Amino acid sequence: MSLTGNNNYFEDFKVGHVIEHARGKTMCENDNVGITMQVLNTADAHYNEDRVKDTFGKRLQFGGVTISMIIGMSMQDTGENALRELGLDKIRLKTSVFHGDTLYAYTEILDKTVVDQDSGEVRFKHWGVNQDKKIVFEGERRTLIKRKPV
Amino acid sequence: MERAVLASKGNPYEAFSEGQVFEHHWGRTLTDGDSTWFSTQTLSFNPLYFNEPYAQSLGHPKMVVNPMLVFNTAFGLSVEDLSEGGGLFLGVDDCEFLIPMHVGDTLTARSTVASKRISKSNKTAGIVTWITEGFNQRGEKTIEFKRTNFVRFKDPEAVLAGLES
Question: ipTM more than 0.85?
Fold first, then answer.
C-alpha cells in the first residue's frame, strides 16, 4: 500500500501543462481568523469587524491565508510526493478576499530539472480565483519532488 | 473609560528608514498540532506535515512543519513592528525555505527595511519593502523573504510636501 498517489512524481509533470484543481473552498472564520490568530498576526482588520465597518465593511482575509489556501488546494496534485518545498517568488495579491468568498486554484508547470537519481525540481505558477473568476492571487513555487521508483 | 489612554500599536510610514533592523517579539514553538491543523485546514495534502511515520520514512526525526506555516508565522511575528499601522499587503518575492523545521522547533523572526517610496496613486500610504528572516532555536536561518506593503502615513500632508520641496 502506498500513502501517496502514483501520478504526481517528477516524471509525471509536463512543462506547459495547466491543471484545474478539483476542489474549491468557501472561506470561513476558521480559515481567516483561525490562521491569523494561530500565526500571531496582530493586525485587527483581519478579526475586528467593528474596526473595519467604514473601510472594508467586513473583516479582510489575511493575504497569507489566501496564498496558503491556493497553494494548499494545489498540493495533492503538485506536492503530495514532494520531498521539500524550496521557495516562492513573484507572489501578488490582486483582489481582497472576505468570509463567504469561494476560492479555486490553477497551476501551470513552468519548468523542471533533474537534481539526482531520487529527486527533481519543478517550478510551478499558481493562481487562484474567486467565485466571480477574479484573480485573487498569483505566484511561483519551486518544489523538490520524488522521482518515480524504478 | 474616560481615563483610559490608548496603548497604540504599529508604526507609520515615517518610522521606517532603509537598513533599519527589527528584532520581532515573542517567537513561537511550532507544535505537531499546529502543523497538522494548518495543513488540513489549507488542504495541504502532503503527509510529511501530518503523518509522523511517513516523515520518518523520508529521514526526518519528526513531522515536518508545513513551510507555509513557517512563512505565515514569521510574517505574523513581524506584523506589529512592520504593518499593523495599516495598509494593504501587496506581495512577496525571493522567498527561500532554507532548511526544514520539525514539530517542536521554535521560530523567531527579524526584519530589515529594504526600501521605501511614495506611490503616485496613493495619497494616504507609501510602499515599504522589508526582508524578513526566520530562525530556529539553534540560530539557523530557516526562511527568508521580501515583503511589500502599503504603509499608512502619520502625516500625509507633511510627507507629500517634503516630496515636492
Answer: yes
